[in-house]
Amino acid sequence: MDLHPVQEDQQDPKPRSYWSRWSKQDFFPEPSFQNFNSYKDALSHTPSRLKDRLFHRSSDSFELLQLPKQSENSMKRCLTWWDLIWLGFGSVVGSGIFVITGQATRENAGPAIVLSYAISGFSALLSVLCYSEFAVEVPVAGGSFSYLRIELGDFVAFIAAGNILLEALVGSAGLGRSWSSYFASILRTDDTDFLRIRVKSLPDGFNLLDPIAVVVLLVANSIAMSGTRRTSVLNWIASIASGLIIVFILIVGFVKGKTENLVPFFPYGAKGVFEAAAVVYWSYTGFDMVANMAEEAKKPSRDIPVGLVGSMSLITVVYCLMALVLCMMQKYTQIDKDAAYSVAFEAIGMSWAKYLVSICALKGMTTSLLVGSMGQARYTTQIARAHMISPWFALVHPKTGTPIYATALVTLISAVVALFTSLDVLSSVFSFSTLCIFMFVAIALLVRRYYVKDVTPTTDLIQFLVCLFLIIGGSTGITAVWNKGMRGWVWYVVLSVIWLSGTLWMALLPKHRVPKVWGVPLVPWLPALSIGINVFLIGSLGYVAFLRFFICTAVMVLYYLFVGVHATYDVAHQIEQEPKTEQGNEIAS
């Protein structure tokens, strides 16, 4: 009987300070990394451990209940649907609508740019629906990392995690440099690089140092560290102010614009509309950051669908209307590619309004940085909870309820990248990573509905895999034919029939899991369509984007083989032993 108080004392040591975690055990607590001999032994078992990890799938309960314990302190549930709508608005509505619209309208679509934004918005909404179902069922900070870990396995999730971190770093660095460029253009229109420092000894693309971008990143991320609720309130106040400026732009555009500027509506044909849709799609990215806030939503089953779907629907309407008024204010052949709205206001005699446009664009980039910082840090936190990187980064501060170490990691690396790397180098890597994640999440949703381990019959699983192969194959084929410039209808019909056959066959298969609270409608049609669109957009990227993506992925695989596979193997098997140990202790008692 006297053993129980002693056991309680041993189990409840004095809590350590958040700021005093600097020992090797804090960074590498896994048995494989205790010393050189243990690491050498772990490496000798790499093949068997890799096999174990390749076929291992996590579970909803493990992601929801076990992994958050690694953070020691809980994140605060302080966000409502109102917060999530404006977090979505603040994350997505950055500089894209002001920067990309002019180029896409003049060179690709003409007034039909409105349809391009509608198509891209529909595509983004499909991905939002997939994210929403997962976020309701598994409301954790990991977002797509956790979803893929549950449905597609540990290794695929790691590849996704590596690309998520790459996206986080590249996205933040790109936004920081965009902010710097736009701010410089307000002060001096003839040279947007005049605030940067040129270093002749460095190669092109890396020789313009940008200290302004570094300062902006440090300030935005420091605010995000201070508290989720505080950052959210600041975001929605700024977003509402930005919304008022957008309303002003729309009113002036409809009053001063001329409908005759919309003729011809399709100067570049259907091809131009779809090419422009691929270009403007990047204006919609950022919503996945909001899905990462699920762990801090007060009522995830209500707040997440309303927040994500509501914000994306609002953004799509805003983008279409803004594209329409731009084409009404100026003939598409006269629209400026770089500063479309500012030049359009000058053309109607309201040159002073360009400053409102600049304020709105800078505000958009600032809130995108704020929300992006919050989402990226939570990605990193869940990845660290799984021990794919050091669990030190999973720690949540007891007072602020935010993952300060994870935020600092993303901040410092992105600041270094932003200091050296130009926008054109950053953008291609970011685009590929983002689209791959969206495609994988749509695939994971189909796996979730149609395959449940130890429940789904083998025949159903084989049929499902064949259907999935047909969907992906048909989508890839259509993309390849389009990019080769083959405009004959025969190939498109054949490949569309392949995609349609796979989707229809899958629709006839029995579903072995149904959503508990909220789910994507019209499964498998909407996820299959999302796969097709994302594959098509990936195919629109250039050769260099593919090359950089595969080089980065190869580096991630090397890291996984030498570090990640051993850390996750140790943690998984330690957790498996815990119930046996507890059972043994109960028997001994």
Characterization of the model:
The chain has 23 helices and two strands. The chain has 589 residues and is mostly helical. A two-stranded antiparallel sheet has the order 1-2. α11 (211-226) runs antiparallel to α18, α19 (423-450) packs antiparallel against α22 (525-539) and α20 packs antiparallel against α21. This is Cationic amino acid transporter 8. Belongs to the amino acid-polyamine-organocation (APC) superfamily. Cationic amino acid transporter (CAT) (TC 2.A.3.3) family.
Give a concise summary.
It is built from 23 helices and 2 strands. By secondary structure, it is mostly helical. The protein has one domain: Amino acid/polyamine transporter I, CATH 1.20.1740.
**Strand percentage:** under 5%
What is the CA-atom radius of gyration, in angstroms? 25 Å
Tell me the CATH topology: Amino acid/polyamine transporter I
The domain tally reads 1
How helical, in percent, are the residues? over 70%
Q: How does the helix and strand content classify structurally? A: mainly alpha
Strand order of the largest sheet: 1-2
Q: Identify the overall geometry.
A: globular
| Total DSSP E strands | 2
CATH architecture: Up-down Bundle
Largest sheet: 2 strands, antiparallel
Average of the residue pLDDT scores:
85
Q: Could you name the CATH class?
A: Mainly Alpha
Low-confidence stretches: 1-11
Question: How many helical elements?
Answer: 23
Cα separation of the termini: 9 Å
- SSE string, helices as H and strands as E: HHHHHHHHHHEEHHHHHHHHHHHHH
Looking at how many chains there are and whether they match, the oligomeric state comes to: single chain
Q: Which superfamily, in CATH terms, is the homologous superfamily?
A: Amino acid/polyamine transporter I
